[in-house]
Amino acid sequence: MAQAPAPTAPGGGAPSPSPADTWLPRGTAELVLLDKLRGQPVTVSVKSGQSTVFGALTITVRNCATRPPDLPQNAAAFLEVAEGKTAKPVFKGWVLSNTPAVGQLEDPVYDLRLVTCR
After folding, report:
1. What is the mean predicted confidence (pLDDT) over 91-95?
2. Residue 38 φ/ψ region, left for φ over 0, alpha for ψ in the -120 to 50 degree band, beta for the rest
3. Other beta carbons less than 10 A from residue 2's beta carbon
4. Half-sphere exposure (Cβ direction) of 34: Cα atoms closer than 13 Å
5. pLDDT tens-digit profile of 32-52?
6. 11: helix, strand or coil
7. How far is Cα 76 from Cα 29, in angstroms, rounded to an integer?
8. Per-range mean pLDDT, top range of 2-11, 48-57, 80-89
9. How buried is residue 76: exposed, middle or buried, by Cβ count under 10 Å (0-12/13-18/19+)?
10. Residue 77 class from Cβ within 10 Å (0-12 exposed, 13-18 middle, 19+ buried)?
11. Closest CA to 14 of 79, 65, 62, 77
C-alpha cells in the first residue's frame, strides 16, 4: 500500500513531504473534477498556494510533489477543499495519484482526483 508523504510544516508553512521519503517538489497540481449530477469531468491545473472554484467547491493546493524518476511513479498533493461560503474545509489532506482512495473527498455531488504534479 502506498504511503502518503509525512506532513511537516517547517516555519509554519504548508505541509511538505519529508526529504527521507524522496519526494520532489512541483509547482502545479493537475486535477480532474467531476460534477456527478452533470457527469462531465473537467481537468484543471492549479499552482501551489492558489485556489480554483468548481461548482460550490473552492479547492486550494497547498503543496504538490512527485517521486524521482528512479522510483515508481506517483504524485501527491496537499489540498484544502471548502464548500459553499463556509471557511471551514470539508476536506484537508494529502491525495495520491496512484491510490486515490487513501485521501479522498467524500461528497455526494463532487468527485476530485489528482492526475499529476508538474
Report:
1. 93
2. alpha
3. 12
4. 13
5. 999 999 998 999 999 999 999
6. helix
7. 9
8. 48-57
9. buried
10. buried
11. 62
